[in-house]
Amino acid sequence: MNEQQIDEKITLEQVRIMELVHHRTLEKFTAGPAVKRTRLFFLLLPYLNGEYWSSETEASSKTVSIVQAALDAHEHVEENGAANLEQQLTVLAGDYYSGVYYQVLARLKNIDLVRQLSSAIAEISENKASLYESLPWRPTDIEIAVGEIEAGLIRTFYEFYSYGSYERLAIRALSLLRYESELELLKSGGRSPLLNVLAKATGSMLTAEQWLHEKVNTLYSEVVHLAKQQPLQKELESFLLNRVLPHRKMEQLIREG
Predict the structure, then answer these.
(1) CATH number at residue 117
(2) What's the whole-number mean pLDDT along residues 79-85?
(3) What DSSP line would sit under 35-96, residue for residue?
(4) Between the CA of residue 18 and those of 27, 35, 100, 244, what are the distances in Å?
(5) pTM, entire model
(6) pLDDT of 257 higher than 50
């Protein structure tokens, strides 16, 4: 599969998932479901790399994307409050996407997968909630929490369908992308619960920024190594490093930092 075919597959899945959760009124007043291409890439990674991928696996992957959209919708409201109509509708959107998720699961009739995904959802929600509490955090604990928040559902999907060898790669890459996003937010003068927690854990926002820069570099090196160790097909590895991970942008952020 060449890079164009990989891109087309991700786009096709994105469109199909958007169709599953389409709701005209909610999309009129909110940003709509957040079906991130980067997460779709890692969700589809075993398939893109030539692993066995049944129709059940395909359906389950869509389910994971739908519930991730629900979790992201709720997180957006937690960070911004729900004081106006758009934010209140975003709460409803999260509930709506969750409802679609359970409908898809019911059609799958896969009780074991339902249980494992439900457990992962609870753990992700617990980690997200903890970021809003004034608790003492160590940087190593923050790393674990971020890895679970960003890749917990994909990890569960991998483990259920025996794709566990891809787990470390997905967790490292998605954590890297989250840290890069936080650096961009910080550079623009913004703040987030994660940045505030990091500032407390490291002593100041300046040291938090330095910690993030170091993590971006370290994780990128790890991802490159893991991509070769897997091994990924040549075109897939190129797509990951050149299209999924915007490292040139990261290098610029690091130089400017």
Answers:
(1) 1.10.600.10
(2) 50
(3) --HHHHHHHHHHHHTT----HHHHHHHHHHHHHHHHHHHHHHHHHH-S-SHHHHHHHHHHHH
(4) 11, 8, 11, 20
(5) 0.85
(6) no
